[in-house]
Amino acid sequence: MLAVATLAGGVPVLAPKPAAAADADFQKWLQSLWPDAQALGVSRPVFDQAIRGLEPDLSLPDLVIPGRAEAPPRGQAEFVQTPAEYLRDKNLANLAATGRKLYGEHRATLAGIEKRFGVPASVVLAIWGRETAFGSYKLPHDALRVLATQGYYGRRKDMFRTELLYAMKMLQDGTPRADMRASWGGAMGLTQFLPSELYKHGVDFDNDGRRDIFRSVPDALASAAQQLHAKGWQPGKHWAYEVTPPARGFDCTIADPENLKPLREWLAAGYAPAGGKRPAAADLDEPASLLQPAGTHGPSFLIMKNYYVIKDYNFSDLYVLFVGNVSDRIAGGGPFARTWDPVVQLRTKDLEEMQKRLAALGLYRDKIDGKAGMRTRLALGAYEKQNGLPLDCWPDASVLDHMRARAGR
């Protein structure tokens, strides 16, 4: 929060408000939520209890705090780690081994979930493993404090304001406050649900009259499967196939999600399934696009509809690759065939600068978010082609230095 101060000479400048004033504004904002909370069925006593003593947690990532020179780093590992760091083979192998053991323990439940929702047991187990290490990872934050902080100071205020209201509804409907531990983004439970998603997709699969994503494995896994089903999961279809691109004449800028053609056409064009794995006949006519999450410095994948369904659960390519590979291993598959080169991830502010420069050149038309996503990699590859640079579709410091020199700074 900012207030106006005055320098000598009468020039007005912005200065941080005192902490007490900032907290008063936060409390006023909390009180303003009452009409919308009431509309969701939250009683006044529950509302008052929910916000009593609530203060923002300014240590959370992804906040925009006026007057603070430097915000905390953005915290989602999928966007601040390199593919090699995020997709460490040891981690994938360990989770898959535990997943296979849990498959045996929950076989009947998983079979019932797959029959009802069409989502393979290996996929929901992999999500459980990635989200909370099968329940062994204890979420560190109070959900209401996280959601209130993100709703007031975050980059997606409207979304988190809504989630805070639904978290209050959870309290109203009997969820103990002590159970509502969350990630820094407010997701809760064994399979990490935001409050509104719980109300959309929560399932009482153990038939005890409650949708309990905190302690009931059947409810948590069925809720994850229901969410994937609702987002368009295609039963009997795979999520992706790792492939080896043609050795000659390959151009990484074709790794564009809009460059869709049937899987069989990619195979006929020389994209060989890695490790000798033959695609299922049911997938051959599925529209597929090429994905290279580390540019030419790592594995290549032909991705299909179910890839994007998992991505709708967590909007990150690395998350999907993590869940997909653990799922494949639980079902009897193995590691990625091609290893990840040790590339360097640019700092968020440098990636934002690169995106702005690419946008100014007309090569990038997506949001400035400091993430090395598909659109950033494609735009970077186009820049490399235009300027006769080595073509690898991976944003690194040398290309940013070239952009700066080209612009004269």
From TrEMBL:
InterPro entries: Lysozyme-like_dom_sf, MltB-like, MltB_2, Peptidoglycan-bd-like, PGBD-like_sf, PGBDSf, SLT_2
Sequence ranges assigned to domain Transglycosylase SLT in this UniProt record: 26-328
SUPFAM superfamilies tied to this protein: Lysozyme-like (SSF53955), PGBD-like (SSF47090)
Pfam family, one: PG_binding_1
Record domain Peptidoglycan binding-like: where: 349-403
Gene Ontology molecular function terms on file: peptidoglycan lytic transglycosylase activity
Domain of life from the UniProt record: Bacteria
Single Gene Ontology BP annotation: peptidoglycan catabolic process
Listed name of the protein: Lytic transglycosylase
